[in-house]
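Please decode residue identities from the backbone states below.
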């Protein structure tokens, strides 16, 4: 359930993200709409609108709002575009993409997280296509994508993801084998070549191979 209290806290979060450098009004409006408290256990809901990542059980992490806003801004997607997300996790980033009017396909390798989000998101009014599987393989059956967003720290840029990008499309991916990753935006040009830009260091949970039934 949403409330005036949550709405007020959300407005403060949007103002904070704006002061931290997020400029895209559409991204800020989407963050202003998604009820982040619904992704967090009610006993911790005072943290829901703070700018922090949060472990919420079952190996699950909800990304820091600034990181979600930053990656979404880098994605620079327009309404109606097809977007593939790797790492559904809590489903929060997925919901932000849905608020932007995107056609979202999201893959999660942990079954329990996939099962949870499959129930939660429709309750919140969002209907992305959710998959249990390995993000390293992408989703060739639904390719090509206008945009691909990776929300876990990748040890390298998976070739399958590059191949599933439309010409003129872009992949936003944090890459690095250690604790810290470098945020990359890789565009696929008309000639099939790629152009890579770097946007600083971030910390993500690692992108792990193959699907897992672990808790
Ligand atoms: N977008 C999420 C972030 C979750 S953290 C959110 O807003 O909450 C990253 C997620 O990536 C974790 O749930 C983790 O299980 C998942 N992940 C890790 N390796 C993966 C892989 N190879 N394929 C798909 N998902 C993966």
């Amino acid at each position: 359930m949403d409330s005036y209290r949550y709405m007020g806290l959300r407005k403060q979060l949007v103002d904070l993200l704006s002061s931290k450098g997020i400029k895209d009004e559409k991204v800020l409006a989407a963050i202003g709409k998604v009820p982040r408290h619904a992704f967090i256990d009610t006993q911790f809901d005072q943290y829901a609108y703070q700018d922090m990542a949060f472990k919420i059980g079952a190996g699950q992490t909800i990304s820091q709002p600034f990181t979600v806003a930053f990656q979404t801004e880098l994605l620079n997607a327009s309404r109606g575009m097809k977007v593939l997300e790797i790492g559904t996790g809590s489903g929060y980033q997925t919901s932000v993409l849905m608020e932007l009017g995107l056609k979202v396909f999201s893959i999660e390798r942990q079954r329990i997280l996939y099962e949870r989000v499959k129930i939660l998101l429709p309750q919140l009014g969002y209907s992305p296509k959710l998959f249990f599987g390995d993000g390293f393989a992408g989703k060739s059956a639904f390719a090509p994508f206008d945009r691909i967003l990776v929300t876990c720290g990748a040890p390298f840029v998976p070739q399958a993801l590059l191949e599933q990008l439309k010409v003129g499309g872009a992949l936003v991916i944090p890459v690095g084998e250690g604790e810290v990753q470098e945020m990359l935006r890789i565009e696929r040009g008309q000639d099939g070549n790629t152009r890579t830009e770097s946007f600083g260091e971030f910390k993500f949970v690692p992108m792990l191979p193959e699907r897992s039934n672990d808790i």
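Observation: The two ends are 27 Å apart (CA to CA).
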